[in-house]
Design a protein that fits this description.
With 156 residues, the protein is α+β, with helices and mostly antiparallel strands. The protein has one domain. The protein is 26% helix and 29% strand. It has four helices and seven strands. The protein has a five-stranded antiparallel beta sheet. Strands 2-3 form a two-stranded antiparallel sheet. Strand 2 and strand 3 form a beta hairpin. Helix 3 crosses helix 4.
Length: 156
Amino acid sequence: MLTKVFLNGHPRAGQATHFASSVRVGRKIHTCRDNTEYWIRKIEALKAKGGTLSVREWQDKPYRSPQVVVAGIPSAEVGVSVLVMNKLRHEYEHHRHPAPTYDAFINGTLIDIEVLAKNDGFESAKDFIAFVEPLFNKYQSDTIYLALIHFNNFRY
């Protein structure tokens, strides 16, 4: 399921994400999901069966409206990677609470967050960070693990 609008808590809450159209034109080539182990098992099962990943979004309100199919991705093209994101806190003499910075790794390789954000359909790294920031709070950790579900053969 793709998010049709930015959720409450995001600086752009209520505005359209345009994720569906971004998937259709090949701009959004992956999505990040919490519950990493679940998604790894789900994608492995899909690939073993040779099925199709059905990418969808809610027609209107989540869980209260029909789902609309955005794209069907053949299992041969679907993949899943583990994305490790770190919130880096910096100590400076003059700033008590400086804004954190973030880094991201896939298979031990540092990934440019701007590139990651654009490939995930976001207009900016700022929007992407605001989208995943609640997960740092949820896990009360400066490191989070996300399933990065690939919609084509591109891999980092």
